[in-house]
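retry 2 of 3: previous attempt timed out while embedding adenosine-5'-triphosphate. Reduced batch size to 1 and resubmitted. Inputs unchanged:
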Amino acid sequence: MSGTSHPVFSVEGVSKSFGVFNALTDVSLSVRHDEIRAIIGPNGAGKTTFVNIVSGVYRPSKGRVILDGADITGLPPQKRARLGLARTFQIASLFRGMTIAEHMELAVRGRDTDRHERTELLDRMGLSAFADRDVQTLSHGDQRILEMAMAMVLKPKFLLLDEPTAGMSVAETDRMIRLIGDRLRGKVGVIIVEHDMSVVTQTSDQVTVLAAGAVATSGTPDIVLRDPLVKELYLGSAAGH
Amino acid sequence: MRDTVGLIVSLSILLATCLLATLIGEFWTGVLARCVTWMFLAISFTLAYSYANIPSVAQATVFGAGAYAVIWAAPAIAGNIALMLLASMIAGGAVALVFGLLVLRMSHSGAAIGTIILAVAFSMLGNAAIGLTGGTDGLPLASEAFHLFGIPITAGPNIGMLLLGAVLLAILLAGFWYISGRRIWRIVRAVQQNALRAQVLGYNAVAYRIAIYVISGCIAGLGGGLYALVSRHVAIETIGLSMSLKSILWAAVGGISSIYGGPIGVLAIQLASEVLLRWTVRVDLIIGLMLVAVALWLPQGVMGLRTRNANWISTIKQWRRT
Ligand SMILES: Nc1ncnc2c1ncn2[C@@H]1O[C@H](COP(=O)(O)OP(=O)(O)OP(=O)(O)O)[C@@H](O)[C@H]1O
Ligand SMILES: [Mg+2]
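retry 2 succeeded.
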């Protein structure tokens, strides 16, 4: 770990088994309050399992999950959210028949957040023009952006982004990368689960590579992505370029 | 998202029911008065199914708790109808609370199966506890001088009880219309659509589901209480599984996703049954076939007809805008 500030989020020795199958084995990592850490790994490496443990969908078989110094291992998702842990979903999960504005209302949980600030957030994300439109009429990219806005509006301590660019066009991916760079980088602790290596190099300070449920290696993107082991794991796939 | 048209349609149906009852004979007034009590049951099923994600096959048991509460309470509270109906709502809500907590714990078998187990178990318990329930013979309502806030009311299948039920139902429907435009209802809808997503936004999905289910229980209980007053008699089969299934049919015909469909569903099926009974003994068969037809061609029930038209209208509007 670099830097002296304490991590805003960490997992310590987390394991998760489904029956006899170990999906995660003794995974430890931490994220500083101003750091973006990418988690990469081949299919079946345990990334989604990790996301589910962090957000409280699963309880780990072993190990602890720590948010801002507090043990949240046993807490349900809503309590984690109220403690400042926000997440987005790999598949945009918005509510049918509700507008962007209504989604933002849900996201702020009736708190008196600065309305001006909320409008500004939507403005910056290029969503304010459609604020009163049913989310089902939005493009896939705009839906993902809205997910981001919902996750960011209460200024969480820690953000978990599950493949934020999955299924996006090149232009939409660029927009997402810019958004992460402008609004998140250096401002809040983030974990991005990502398949696209170019997204990782453009957004992340640190990378952790998961393989077969364990941490294979971690470090800065330029070092990790050049690691022959990582190249081998991806075997000329996305890591190749 | 307030469905004003739905509210107006259901209130109109209710008004028409009351007007009709004043024109036709005593027998039909009684039929309609019972129908109004069942409308509460149909609405409570829709609420449980569409907003608590509990497809409850035990709603009649909850309805029955309200009915028996009135039977039991009547002698003690000297014909005070307001107190009796309060007791029936509390009984319905309490039973629903227990059911809801149990059902959400049976997550592996699914909510519907959980409620079937509860409905069967309680029906057997009710049969066994003859002293309390009267079993298949049932229990009569103690004859008291019934009054509502000082106004004397005769219990039984009469116009007074019909009007009382209709007024309470109108208040319920209008109240639902009001709530459905509030922020809290948006949360309920969010929980219902995607519980995990709502949890990640910080909402306790289970608590919301239980709360909605308890409210649906209060509504069913109130219907049961009115039913006991109209029928002046409650037996164990009025609260059994077959009655629960009937409530699902009413809701399905009216429109399973709209609270406002309940009254239409009850009237359509019950009036059709009553009329058919004069011609044939195979009423259940005919009703069954009607339901298959509804399931096939009108999956959203009568209320679904409207959204179908609305979709059509909005498509045209959009098309004209571009
Ligand atoms: N609920 C479960 N029950 C049993 N096995 C599971 C469960 N969830 C995941 N697994 C297994 O755990 C392993 C890791 O799965 P996971 O979905 O976490 O991988 P992933 O890294 O997200 O893969 P992908 O890149 O394909 O999304 C897989 O072999 C999967 O089959
Ligand atoms: Mg995955």
